[in-house]
Amino acid sequence: MRTGTSRRSDEDVDDQEHTTARIERGAGAHADRRARRRTDPHPRGHGEEAFDTLHAAGKVRNFGVSNHTPGQIELLKRSLNQPLVVNQVQLSITHSPLFAAGIAANMAGLDQSIDRDNGLLDYSRLNDMTLQAWSPFQKAFFDGVFLGDRENFAELNDVLDELAAAYGVTPTGIAVAWITRHPANIQVVLGTTTPSRVVESAAGSEIPLTREEWYRLFTAAGHTVP
Ligand SMILES: NC(=O)c1ccc[n+]([C@@H]2O[C@H](COP(=O)([O-])OP(=O)(O)OC[C@H]3O[C@@H](n4cnc5c(N)ncnc54)[C@H](OP(=O)(O)O)[C@@H]3O)[C@@H](O)[C@H]2O)c1
């Protein structure tokens, strides 16, 4: 880190060795991307030497982060020689503070109006940083999928079924389309181990939902559109 010690930290070594081992366990000789998962506020190396070494060795071509706010990204960028091209964040129709806060900005007494990521959506678009949506089908935080959950999300599943029939895809595809339809060009990170769900998701990623359809899904999931 240029603002602190230049000594190679234990964390840098760990990061570099961990990444190299992961690449070598996988199929390829390099990774297209390496993402730093969450920020750690304690004084330590930011991994810049590990990034330099992995990049120079051709092990990693592009770097990114996960769950970082705009301020955290700006702070980290000061220590790095490579651009940060992606940021993975949790995003699904039912877990969408990334979109929802801005849609209901500045509304007193409305929980949705709380900005939980310091304007990450606008920051990412203004800085050409690609957002990647993790847990695209989860209700909230690893508590099961909203697809087919009629007990908690009956209205949402009605709209998903209706749009799936209209577009000739599955509700899974429409859930993906809801993310990819946004002009921020967000990429979807699937967690499924079921090949057919990957195919359904890919089919949905090309669906051009109308603005009205997009907002119908959003409100059916319980969000407010002022
Ligand atoms: N950067 C980060 O901090 C972070 C955090 C968490 C996750 N991630 C990444 O994001 C990826 C996706 O997250 P995730 O796994 O939570 O996402 P997800 O794709 O929303 O959920 C996958 C899980 O939901 C099940 N599922 C999917 N569609 C279903 C359906 N229609 N009906 C019933 N079950 C269904 C899958 O089961 P089947 O396997 O049986 O299809 C799987 O158990 C992870 O694999 C991980 O790589 C990143």
From TrEMBL:
Gene Ontology cellular component terms for the protein in this record: cytosol
Pfam families named in the record: Aldo_ket_red (PF00248)
Every NADP-dependent oxidoreductase domain range: 50-216
Ranges where the record places region Disordered: 1-48
Compositional bias (Basic and acidic residues): 16-48
Gene3D superfamilies from the UniProt entry: NADP-dependent oxidoreductase domain
Matching InterPro entries: AKR_Detox_Biosynth (IPR050523), NAD(P)_OxRdtase_dom_sf (IPR036812), NADP_OxRdtase_dom (IPR023210)
Superkingdom, taxonomy of origin: Bacteria
Protein name: Aldo/keto reductase family protein
Organism: Compostimonas suwonensis
Organism taxonomic ancestry: Bacteria, Bacillati, Actinomycetota, Actinomycetes, Micrococcales
